[in-house]
Amino acid sequence: MCVKKIFFFISVFFACNCAFASIVITNGLTHTHNVKEGTVYKGIITIENTAETSQNVKLYQKDYSYKADGTSYYNDPGSNERSNLQWIKLNTNLLKLEAKGKVDVAYEIVVPTNIDAGSYWSVIMVEPVDEIKPSNDKPGVQIKSVIRYSIQIITTNDQPAEALLTFDAINLTKQDGKRVLQLDIANNGQLYHTVEASIEIFDNKTGSNKGTYLSSKLSLLPNNSKRFTIDLSTVAPGKYSAAILAATHDEQIFGINIELDIPNE
After folding, report:
1. Segment 185-202, tens digit of pLDDT
2. Is residue 103 part of a domain?
3. Which pLDDT does position 132 carry in this prediction?
4. I need a surface site. Which of 36, 133, 197, 224 has the fewest CB within 10 A?
C-alpha cells in the first residue's frame, strides 16, 4: 500500500509588533500619514532577521477589511473603494536578509488629485520565503508554517471629513469566566480613528453613579467594524440605567442610552 505525503501550508497574520520565527518588523504594523492631494510622501518598513542564518523575504500589497466577528479579508486590488494601494510603490519586492541583519524597505506614496475627503488604506505583506524540502523519511501529514506580517499604510487627507460611529450590537455575556459587555462598533464615517468605548452606570432607584468602565483602545477604519469588550464582573447584580460612549482620538464622542439588567448568577 502506498502512503501519500500531504503538505499543508498555514498562513498566520500578525497584528502586533512581535517576534515569531526569525523575521521581525521593528517599526510598527500601522503607519499613518496626513497627506495633501498631488503630493509625494515617503516611509520605511524596518525588517530584522534574528536568526543565525540568512533569510529571503518577499513583499506584496493587498486591500484589507475586517468585521466585528473577527473575520479579516486580504483581497486583491479593487475590492476596497477607499484603497490607496495604487498610490504606493515599494523600492523592492524581494530581498535577502543576512544573519542578524536589518534592512529598511522604502515606500513612496503619490497622492492623486481630486480624491474624496477622509482616510484611505491598504496593507503591505511581508513574508519569509523558504525553499520547500519534503522529507521522504516520515509518512503521513507534514505541516510547514508560513508567518506573514501585515503592515497597514493609512493616509488621511486634509479636507473636512465626516466622522460617524454606530453601535451595531450590544450584548451582556460571559467571557473567560467574567461578565463582560460586548459592543460591536462600526465606522460609518470617512475617517480612520483610534476608539475607546466606555459605559457609565447609574442605579435605577437612587440615580447614584456606580462607576465608569472602559474598553481597550482599538483602531477602526471606515466601512469596517470591531468588537469592544468591557469587563463588568465587579458590578453587583441589579437593574441600572447606563450611557455607552465611543470616543475617538480626536475627541469626537458618540453615545447611546440603555437599560442594563445584570442577573444574579
Report:
1. 999 999 999 999 999 999
2. yes
3. 52
4. 133
Secondary structure in 3-state letters for 115-180: CCCCEEEEEEEEEEECCCCCCCCCCCEEEEEEEEEEEEEEEEECCCCCCCEEEEEEEEEEECCEEE
Here the CATH number for the domain that contains residue 241 is: 2.60.40.10
Kindly give the residue spans of alpha helices, DSSP state H, lying in the chain: none
Q: Counting Cβ atoms within 10 Å, is residue 237 exposed (0-12), middle (13-18) or buried (19+)?
A: exposed
Query: What pLDDT, on the 0 to 100 scale, is given for residue 95?
Result: 95
Give the per-residue pLDDT at 215: 98
Residues 171, 61 share a domain: no
Which burial class, exposed, middle or buried, applies to 47 when counting CB atoms under 10 A from its CB (0-12, 13-18, 19+)? Answer: buried
Angle at 47 between CA 45 and CA 53, to 5 degrees: 160
Tell me the three cell numbers of residue 122.
Answer: 491598504
**Strand pairing category for 30-35 and 141-157:** parallel
User: Above 50 in pLDDT, residue 1?
Assistant: no
pLDDT surpassing 60 at residue 69:
yes
- What pLDDT shows up at residue 7? 30
Q: What is the rounded distance in angstroms from the CA atom of residue 31 to the CA atom of residue 7?
A: 35
Task: Report the amino acid identity of residue 118.
Answer: G
Domain final residue, candidates 99, 130, 157: 157
DSSP state letters, 170-208: EEEEEETTEEEEEEEEEE-SSS-EEEEEEEEEEETTT--
